[in-house]
Protein YOP1
Amino acid sequence: MSVAQKVQQHPVFVQAQNKANFYLAQLDKELTKYPVLNNFEQRTQVPKTYAVIGAFVLLSVLHLVNPLAAVVSNLVGWALPAYLSFKAIESPSPHDDIQWLTYWVVFGFFNFLESFALRVVLYYLPWYFSFKTLFIVWLQLPAFRGAQTIYLTVLKPVLQNISSQSRTVAHTTNNSTSTAEPVGAHSE
């Protein structure tokens, strides 16, 4: 019996192989929900699970090449959400519209904040774009509802506070102008 055969029959190897097969089957089951991946698998004869894992590995390797990290991160934040937003607009259900509209609000706000602090963040955190990409994926995935979480816990309270302050200022301004004497009127 060769060394390779002994390793393949070792209980730890068999257990690891069974666990990996279980997770691959779970991923395949989850990916079956996406018609694009099913079509890709039919056309190329490459299992969608391997294609997604390969794309993930490729993106990870591209993050190692620092000049490409920002481009790859922004591509991850734009490409799939843009396609799924298009599909959401064309679908009759409003639920996917809400998810992607929320995603774009959070993504835009995040990019706005990032524009102010990017140099400082990159100085202290050289792997920033890897973390940003993971954050963007977390925002996108319906299983996590990351965009909705950020919107409800951060953006909505801030925007409601700004809105209520602007209403208070507008109300105060309207009251002060309505109690003032009309232009051209003279009091005698």
